Amino acid sequence: MTPIRAQGNSLGNVLISGGASGLGAATVDAVVRRGGTPLVIDKKPPLNPNIAYVSADLADTAAVSAAVTELAERVEDRIDGVFTAAGIDSCGTLESVPAKDWEQVVLVNLLGTAAVVRSALPYLKSSKGRIVTCASTLGIKAVGDATAYCASKFGVVGFTRALAAELAGEVGVTLLIPGGMHTPFFDGRTEQYKPPPDAKLNKPEDVAETVAFALSQPPGCEVRELVVCSSTESSWP
To answer: Which domains does the chain carry?
Structure first.
């Protein structure tokens, strides 16, 4: 399989975790529109069979490392950008959510983010590339029945801020803090944990444009943090 490559002002080769659906899939499309080559890590394949893809569980650090290496080899060992879009949730009180489910949220959302970035760093340092991590408005504002998700996303915020300090001058680092979006993220939940029918949520393709904007900044120009949400987002500020 040959990855699709569009022409124009290219973003280069962009590794996207969780690129098969939701914000990740929208970012895949945004990268292609800008002449880049998306490289997807996900449990499920992208809808477009021409997208370079490797299946991996983000909670499995070894599998993530192998997936990043395989995808890099497909594009001559050059990765110009990383976007860590993958994320899961397990709603409920701390007492009601099974421990393994609770821990899986932290494993995927926080440790999976770190695993992707860690594996991609040698390539990014070589290309003077960029990283965009994906937190949440619930990474800066806590709510009940979301201890696992808030813990993981607060962790992503701290991880990214520390990473930006660590990689200053070597690799660009941006923290994306999105509000609610119209994605499958809310599928399968009880009504209690779904946005109400009249909720004003963002379109993932609009948020993906902000990811592309961050990835397209010239060397030395840093967009450190982006809060992107509907103007009536209830979790912001």
So the answer is: 13-228 (3.40.50.720)
